[in-house]
Design a protein that fits this description.
Blueprint lengths: L10 H10 L4 E2 H8 L3 H13 L3 E5 L6 E6 L1 H23 L9
Antiparallel strand pairs: 1-3, 2-3
Helix pairs in contact: 1-4, 2-3
């Protein structure tokens, strides 16, 4: 992945990507999925935003922000169609909420 420009991706990020794939998630939802505190999830989100892997967007019906827009880094390598395929695949893998790390 590093050779393709994806530096600093850790295994824990994969679990976050699975949760974010279908339609995004709030930091609180991500914390529940990962089994970590909101603070830890927020730190992970900030890292992913800083690295260009995800972007924040305003939630439609809540005061909380949702992390869900996949950052430009993915599009640069995969193109728009590739990003769509990746998100759909990850959504199928974790669709019901079954994929969770064992810390």
């Amino acid at each position: 992945m590093v050779a393709r420009g994806f530096e600093g991706v850790r295994p824990a990020h994969g679990f976050a990507f699975v949760r974010l794939a279908p339609d995004g998630a709030s930091v609180g939802e991500l914390a529940v999925r990962l089994g970590v505190t909101k603070q830890a999830a927020s730190q992970m989100v900030e890292e992913l935003v800083r690295k260009g892997y995800v972007e924040r967007r305003a939630a439609e019906e809540a005061a909380a922000e949702v992390v869900g827009e996949w950052g430009g880094k993915w599009g640069e390598v995969l193109g728009e169609g590739g990003v769509r395929v990746l998100r759909e695949g990850l959504g199928r893998v974790g669709g019901g909420g079954g994929v969770r790390p064992v810390w």
